[in-house]
Description:
Blueprint: E1 4-10, E2 27-28, E3 31-32, H1 33-43, E4 50-53, H2 57-60, E5 69-72, H3 79-87, E6 96-101, H4 109-122, E7 126-132, E8 141-144, E9 150-154, H5 161-164, E10 168-177, H6 178-187, H7 202-207, E11 214-218, H8 231-251, E12 255-256, E13 262-264, E14 269-270, E15 275-276, E16 280-282, E17 287-288, E18 293-294, E19 299-300, E20 305-306, E21 311-319, E22 322-323, E23 328-336, E24 338-340, E25 345-346, E26 351-353, E27 363-365, E28 370-371, E29 376-378, E30 381-383, E31 388-389, E32 394-395, E33 406-408, E34 413-414, E35 428-431, E36 434-437, H9 448-458
Parallel strand pairs: 1-4, 1-6, 4-5, 7-11, 12-15, 13-16, 14-17, 15-18, 16-19, 17-20, 18-21, 19-21, 20-22, 21-23, 22-24, 23-25, 24-27, 25-28, 26-29, 27-30, 28-31, 29-32, 31-33
Antiparallel strand pairs: 2-3, 6-10, 7-10, 8-9, 33-34, 35-36
Amino acid sequence: MRTVQAIILAAGEGTRMKSELPKVLHPLCGRPMIAYALDLAASAGVKQPVVVLGHGADAVKPRLPKEVKVVIQTKQLGTGDAVISAKRALSGAAGDVMILYADTPLLRRTTVQRFIEAHFKAGATCTLLTAHLADPTGYGRIVRNETGQITGILEENEATVAQRAIREINVGPLICKAPALTAALAAVTPTGPKKELYLTHIISHIAQQEGAKIQAAKVEEISEALGINSRTELSRAIGVIRQRIVDAHLHNGVTIEDPHSTFIDHGVTIGADSVIRPYTVIETGVSIGKRCSVGPFARLRGGVALADDVRVGNFVELVRTKVGARTRMHHMTYLGDAIVEEDVNIGAGTITANYDGKDKHQTHIGKGAFIGSDTVLIAPVKVGAGAVTGAGSVVPKAHDVPAKGVVAGVPARPLNHRPSEKPAEPSAAKVNGHKKTAKAPRKKTARPAVRKALRLKRRPAAKAKPRVKAKARVRVKARPKQKAKRR
């Protein structure tokens, strides 16, 4: 029976990353770097891998699954010393031990599975994973003898000029029989100014043992050999993983209009016949149904689930939101912590104010609701099925809109009719306590100018009166005033 145990080396400081964050926690497409090594161990059937931590162990340990066995390397004295620390946590001394590196996240599962199969099929003592590079600078070289047998691994600073010309490099992972690994680790001695114990030095020791067999398995793609020790290498690795993710979705029947400007994280599901437009960001934990359209310039964050035939347009951001079938939100919308049922229209500028400065609250929008442009829904709040909010409405928290209700204004208040309907005129209404019968509608008449012309036409012409010659005015001379007599 094949028994494989796994050790994952993750104790390095990563000084060239120039970061306070431990190197193995740097994210690649939505997940920490070390998660890729844990996936490889799981694909090999390893249920309890041993992870060796050192620098930043307090930050890394909480991010690991519960089934992982954690060993702390108190002093970073090389990869060989890390494996010695881990061997104490292995269950038994029999079987084979696979050693993986947390900073080589580009290895494919198929490569590791083929690597293990080759080891058992050949009955090898130790199997290395290698690659041939046009420029092997920075990698350890695989040394072979005249017959092609592997005799050792030389780090670049230990190699001669002739040995540096070797293009076959050591990718890092290896699988070795547990007894041979234990004996080799006990035999090698620390080297260098720091007195470090390198795991690569065990290969030359194993090669000298009688009956030992060391073989190499090559990676499927050259990119798999890339290790991450700097921000530049991290950026390259992210590009490789992102392209693999895009290729997988394309293979599953998804249209991605511009793969180079589309950013999809690990752990995203997209249904067939969906279209992802340029400059769209889809983060880990998003589920998209069939025949959906997303983007351009859209962002779907964790916890988003779109049903079939949903339309998400430009400058829309969703987080922790479930959207029902055939719902549309074409422009400039933010929905957070929301449940949106099917056949809902979300107008441009709509937002859910889900955070009150302390807690986040949920918004529920019912089936067939129509949310007008620039509506603000202050959570917690519910909008009933078939309800309508007018443009610019602000719906306060806990002021739920009833099914088929209509609200508008700031704050939103109910209206007694729907926007598409005219208020009906009653046939009889009470005015000041008296019944007032509805008047018959007045007949349409002509325009005022036309009516005036018609009146003038109907009026009989008046008889002309003879003009009387005006009499000449006679000027009367004013009488002089008499002086009052004195008495």
